[in-house]
Amino acid sequence: MRRVIGKVRVRAALGASLVVAVALVAAGTALLLVLKNNLVGQADLQAENTAREVATQIATGKPYAKLDLPDGDDRPVVVLSEDGRVLAAGEDLRAVDGKAVTAQQAPPAGQQPRDPDDDDDDDRGTKPGEVKDKARHSGGTATVGHRTADYRFATVEAEDTQGGKAVVRAGAPLAAEREAVGSVRTAMLIGLPCLLLVVAGVTWLVTRRALRPVEGIRREMAAITASTDLSRRVPEPGSRDEIDRLARTTNETLGALQESVERQRRFVADASHELRSPIASLRTQLEVGIAHPELLDAPGAVEDAVRLQNLAADLLLLARLDAGERPADARIDLAALVREEVSQRVGDRIAVEVGELAGVEVAGSRGQLGRVLGNLLDNAQRHARESVRATVAREGEWAVLRVEDDGPGVPPEERERIFERFVRLDDARSRDDGGAGLGLAIARDVAERHGGTLAVRTGSVFELRLPRA
User: Fold this and answer.
1) Quick check: 51 and 44 in contact, CB under 8 A?
2) pLDDT, tens digit, 9 for 90 and up, residues 107-158
3) Which residues, 6 or more positions from 146, have their beta carbon under 8 angstroms from its beta carbon?
4) Rounded to 5°, angle at Cα 380 from 378 and 384
5) What domains lie within the chain, and their CATH numbers?
6) 3: phi then psi, degrees, rounded to nearest 5
7) Which of 129, 201, 335, 348 could be disulfide-bonded to 357 (CB atoms 3.0-4.6 Å)?
8) Angle between helices 242-291 and 175-227 (to 10 degrees)
9) Mean pLDDT over all residues of the chain?
């Protein structure tokens, strides 16, 4: 059990760490993607602003040679004609996407050659003196001085006041974006293992504390097993959680087991006590018969043998019932069962009167239900003064068999005790007259095995209720 608890803690720690790892990896990946997209978006916006600043200068008619272009490697700019000629470029810009950038001599603003076919402004995206609203964004490389790096480029088209078209391509560096993403990635790679260790350690400690009562239950159960003392109980933590319910259920099981063992011990002791008397009597009679054959009480010996036989049959039936033997599933007419049982009782002290017998069927074992009826009639015969009566009735989904007599009845405080094994209320009378005290116990056990009940409804009326078939 201790090894199992240790495995539970290990599995809980590993499971929690795995869940946290998956969650952190997913969240970190999403964070990196969002951060990268935001930084790329900022670079696109910066490049577009630079391109529009230069395009605005062109749209106002400023000559290409006098354009105010940003210097340095943070904002490279190149101005191209429609046929791809470089009209202007940053001072240190050497190449864009691997293509060399060399500014060529360009006519001043308003003197650029024009194609007569381009007079239709509807075929152009811009009008003279305007900047096209839509900008295109793309990634690429630029060489500024002797250093080549990755950039985000924005491309904007513009026309000067005379209709000359130019394409402005401005870039924004991605070094800051890569540095920020790399820093976050590095922090995550360093922090993730540390966080997983913390989660595993906390989970280990929490599960250890949570399972500590289970270890207490295990130790107590081991002690109970070693000592066979079923009166001991496992500790209940009182936390009102699953472990607390487990402890309570364990104690309830121990209580039921203790009661069962004590009941079994009482049963063995009572059975031994009940068997001792007829065996001793039979032995005495046989010994006397051997020494003095003329004094042998043969009828008495037969009576003791029959009593032993009946007691052994009762004990065997109780053992089968305790073992959980399921009754048969035959259909039995209770009225026919009563008539058959009464017709066979020709030697009774008081004749059994048959009352109203409703035609109703139940499912079960004919032999066991016949035994119940016989035990109830035997009990009534012992206590009746002048009459014993049996009836069968139908009450809804129940078949009801009643056996009543005109005897003194059972006191209310004893109406449950009489169904215990080896219990006789009239202890003063002889065992030969009163039986072993197993008849009513057997009758109730059989009734419950058939899904019914057996109880004393009034002082001298025993009622057997069985579900109708």
Assistant:
1) no
2) 444 444 444 344 444 444 455 678 888 899 999 998 888 888 899 999 999 9
3) none
4) 130
5) 1-229 (no CATH), 232-325 (1.10.287.130), 326-467 (3.30.565.10)
6) -65, -35
7) 335
8) 20
9) 83
pTM (predicted TM-score)? 0.51
Structure tokens at 35: 């951060």
Query: What CA–CA distance (Å, rounded) separates 197 from 68?
Result: 57
Token pair of 66 as six digits: 């006098």
Q: How far apart are CA 264 and CA 422, in angstroms?
A: 12
In this predicted structure, what is the pLDDT of residue 74?
78
Question: Is the separation of the CB atoms in 277 and 435 below 8 Å?
Answer: no
pLDDT at 370: 92
Q: How far apart are CA 11 and CA 207, in angstroms?
A: 10
Which amino acid does the sequence have at 249?
A: T
Q: Are 215 and 2 in contact (CB under 8 A)?
A: yes
Q: Is 60 left (phi over 0), alpha (psi -120 to 50) or beta?
A: alpha
> How much is the average pLDDT of 337-359?
90
pLDDT, residue 208, reads 77
Side-chain-side CA neighbours of 225 within 13 Å: the count stands at: 6
Cβ-proximal residues to 68 (8 Å cutoff; 6+ apart), any chain: 54, 57
pLDDT at residue number 377: 93
Both tokens of 82, joined, read 């429609």
Residue 105 scores a pLDDT above 60: no
pLDDT band of 180, cuts 50, 70, 90: confident
Read off the pLDDT of residues 262-304 as tens digits, 9 standing for 90 and up: 877 877 777 777 778 788 888 888 888 888 887 777 887 888 7
| β-bridge partners, 148 | 143
Strand order, beta sheet including 99-100: 86-89, 77-81, 165-173, 147-159, 136-144, 93-96, 99-100
C-alpha 76 chain-centroid distance: 63
Encoded tokens for 281: 């009597």
Residues contacting residue 160 through CB under 8 Å, at least 6 positions apart: 58, 59, 60, 61, 109, 110, 112, 128, 129, 166
Q: How many CB atoms lie within 10 A of CB 449?
A: 17
